[in-house]
Amino acid sequence: MENTDIQDERYFNAKKRVDEIKGFYSNLASYVFVNLGLLALNLWTSPNHLWFYWPLFGWGIGVVIHALKVFNYMPFMSHDWEEQKIKEFMAKEQENQKKGANK
Predict the structure, then answer these.
(1) How far apart are CA 18 and CA 20, in angstroms?
(2) Cβ count near 44 (within 10 Å)
(3) Helices (H), 2-78
(4) Please, which pLDDT band fits residue 99 given cuts at 50, 70 and 90?
(5) Residue 42, domain extent
(6) Whole-prediction pTM value?
(7) How many folded domains does the chain comprise?
């Protein structure tokens, strides 16, 4: 029974990870196609005044941050970091409750 639970948890974690990666690639595809459209629109309507790079830059920052998070290059945004902080806060809360009960 416990082995099945472990397998279920591993499957759930793997599926969650695949969904995160799929979400990133969907975001990246949207970024590329929308910005190509904006580039075309900019060059067609006002080629003397280029503005397409502003949304390209702004959205690009978001895409880079998304990539860093999905591919675990930002340790403070990873699931392990979250779990560690949750356990830390729970331990601190338990310690505070024990101190309050001893008074």
Answers:
(1) 5
(2) 8
(3) 2-45, 53-70
(4) confident
(5) 2-71
(6) 0.68
(7) 2
Q: Are residues 58 and 38 in the same domain?
A: yes
| Mean pLDDT on 24-43 | 97
For 79, the token pair is: 């699931």
Which residues have CB under 8 Å from 38's CB, separation 6+?
A: 52, 55, 56
In tens, the pLDDT along 44-85 reads 999 999 999 999 999 999 999 999 989 888 766 666 777 888
Range 79-85, long-range pairs (CB < 8 A, 24+ positions): none
The upper half-sphere exposure of residue 95, i.e. CA atoms within 13 Å in the direction of its Cβ, equals 6
CA distance 47 to 39: 10
Q: What six digits make up the tokens of 51?
A: 């503005």
